[in-house]
Amino acid sequence: MTLLVTGSAGFVGTCVVRQLIAETDEPVASVDALTYAGNPLSFGPAAQSPRHHFEHADIRDEARMRAIFKHYQPRAILHLAAETHVDRSIHAPAEFVSTNIVGTLTLLQVAQDYWRNLPEPRRNAFRFQHISTDEVFGSLAPEAPAFEETTAYAPTSPYAASKAGSDHLVLAWQRTYGLPTLMTHCSNNYGPYHFPEKLIPLMILNAVDGKPLPVYGDGQHVRDWLFVEDHARALRLVLEHGTPGETYNVGGAAERRNIDVVNMLCSVLDELQPSGAPHARLITYVKDRPGHDRRYAINFGKLERELGWRPRESFETGLRKTVRWYLANPGWVASVRSGGYRNWLDKNYGSREAE
């Protein structure tokens, strides 16, 4: 039996693959279109494992997906393939709708036909696990309770709207066709191998290079930070022990303001790689992104009560591990600093004047 992972060369996908190869004996078939954020180098040692079979393919390619299902005969699919960056969705919303909604629709149709034709024991055991985000719930007021699985959807960005659309498709396939689905909503991930357009790796690498640290607006936006290794463990636990048709929230119990995250990063870098002056001097406030949600927070009580999961890393320990990893892996950093990556930074931040 084989597990199928889509979006496998992305940040969370590669972490899931690395864990599966290191901690289980099961074969893994992984699929990724290798767009800007897909990096096979992030598989690490798992890239060389005879149990890891990588397929360079787009989930919107129905014929290719059908061939992959037929060849590998997966017992379950972990669907992580998605366009995920809010700023990119503002610049190019159609690509997010195409990948996140049309791609998920294609995968659901292929999985449904495959599942229906499985012999009964395998059909009963099959799972389609859809990995989503807390951003589908919109923005929280400062004192509002954290998002729960039953929180109403209120997406505010093209990215969040496209993920909400894919969530609704998964729920419809479960309720209309009986496909045994599982769904998770996670808070902001961070950790090693993170593509450096996201807040934490961007700030680490800019600080190391002595470049400005661009903080949106007043820096008071709050996110709940989840170490990627903890997230991967939660996904595996839900896959094996979650109840089909159910949704589970995965959070880090680590709400922090963006400006506090950046200042903490600067302090860790001052200790681990001193530059002769505090790295915090590089902090620059820039014009806020349109529709920037003020606060996200996840209540993962259901996952803790029913499956016994809690994050192993505190934000302080996870952040220190992350900084150490980036400082120790300049080769990986160089591999993602392509011309396309630099062009994106110029496009997104070059037009935002300091405030």
Structural commentary:
45% of the residues lie in helices and 16% in strands. It has 13 helices and 12 strands. The chain has a domain at 2-193 and 226-253 and 295-313: 3-Layer(aba) Sandwich (Rossmann fold), CATH 3.40.50. Strands 3-2-1-4-5-6-10 form a 7-stranded parallel β-sheet, sandwiched between helices. It is globular and about 65 Å long. The protein has 355 residues and is α/β, with parallel strands linked by helices. The model has no long low-confidence stretch (mean pLDDT 93). Helix 7 (199-208) runs parallel beside helix 9 (258-272) and helix 9 (258-272) packs across helix 11 (315-328). Strand 1, helix 1 and strand 2 (28-32) form a beta-alpha-beta unit.
Within CATH, the superfamily of the domain at 2-193 and 226-253 and 295-313 carries the name: NAD(P)-binding Rossmann-like Domain
Second-tier CATH architecture of the domain at 2-193 and 226-253 and 295-313: 3-Layer(aba) Sandwich
Number of helices: 13
Radius of gyration: 20 Å
Shape category: globular
Task: Characterize the main sheet.
Answer: 7 strands, parallel
Distance between the termini: 55 Å
Across the major sheet, the strand order is 3-2-1-4-5-6-10
Average predicted confidence as pLDDT: 93
CATH class of the domain at 2-193 and 226-253 and 295-313: Alpha Beta
Reading the helices and strands in chain order gives: EHEEHEHHHEHEEHEEHEEHEHHHH
Give the helix level as a range of percent: 40-55%
Structural class given helices, strands, pairing? alpha/beta
Report strand %. Answer: 15-25%
**Fold-level CATH name of the domain at 2-193 and 226-253 and 295-313:** Rossmann fold
Number-wise, the strands total 12
Unreliable stretches: none
